Amino acid sequence: MACLFCAGMLGAAEIKMDSLVVGTRSYRDVKVIGANATDLYFTHAEGIANVKLKHLDPALQKQFNYDPKASAEAERRQNEEDSRFQGAIVSKALAKADKTARSRKNETRSSNESLVDAISESSLIGKTIPPLKFESWTAEPPPLKDKAVMVYFWAPWSIPCRRANAGVMGLQKTMGERMAVIGVATKTDLEGDIASEMKPDIATALDAGGKFTASMAVTSIPTVLVIDRAGKVRYQGHPAALTEANLEQLLALPQE
């Protein structure tokens, strides 16, 4: 608007009118300060205003070089620019609202009690899984009824798993009354001398073909799942992050 106004500023002698009537509105002590293809700009007794040239009487329209076609085209362009500007404002407002909503949603997904937070639908955090059932074990499995369960996915060939074994066995010892600890590995991985040498003292279920491991979205080892008594996964990740204190905190969460 400012550009259109400046381009049409009147350079001739100052134009004054005792009054200007446009439709039902009357202005007093009018002093014209500029015009463009669509509008007349002026001061008056009560301030500053502008009116459309197309609303003036024919004599005034002629005085200010009103061209209906040029005016209509200029108004069309201005409306398009206004529409684009308003669209940009709306888009910016929507983007800001969406960002705020996503931020608030993310905040509700996390809490002080969380050790890890899910960032994809494949995560098991907060999901309830079916009861654990395996056909074969390396040793007598611990009772799982009415207990939380830590499922330890491991393999004897994995050096990180060898480093994690002692910590998992330590948690089995300190949390045994409230939480059962079981291992999961494939039969192939448990065959050979290395398995007998590196095997932790934990009853391990044989996962035929790795099907259970895949269904639990395990893509690296060592990985543990901490499952509460209601079957909901409270933790999924590396066992090194777990301590007796934060396990107690996880298991104290409401059982849903």
Provide an overview of this structure:
It is a single chain. Mean pLDDT is 83; it is low at 1-12. Among the domains are: 2-66, Roll (SH3 type barrels), CATH 2.30.30; 148-251, Glutaredoxin (3-Layer(aba) Sandwich), CATH 3.40.30. The chain has 7 helices and 9 strands, in the order H-E-E-E-E-H-H-E-H-E-H-E-H-E-E-H. The strands form 2 sheets. A 5-stranded mixed β-sheet has the order 7-6-5-8-9, with helices on one face. A 4-stranded antiparallel β-sheet has the order 1-2-3-4. The protein is 35% helix and 22% strand. The protein starts with a helix and ends in a 5-residue tail after the last helix.
| Rounded average pLDDT | 83
Number of strands: 9
* Assigned CATH architecture of the domain at 148-251: 3-Layer(aba) Sandwich
Q: Write down the CATH topology of the domain at 148-251.
A: Glutaredoxin
**Count of DSSP H/I helices:** 7
End-to-end Cα distance: 61 Å
CA-atom Rg in angstroms: 38 Å
Strand order within the widest beta sheet:
7-6-5-8-9
Percent in helix: 25-40%
> pLDDT below 50 for ≥5 consecutive residues: which ranges?
1-12
The largest pleated sheet is described as: 5 strands, mixed
Strand content: 15-25%
- Helix vs. strand class: alpha+beta
What string gives the helices and strands in order?
HEEEEHHEHEHEHEEH
What is the CATH domain class of the domain at 148-251? Alpha Beta
Shape: rod-shaped
The name of the CATH superfamily of the domain at 148-251 reads Glutaredoxin
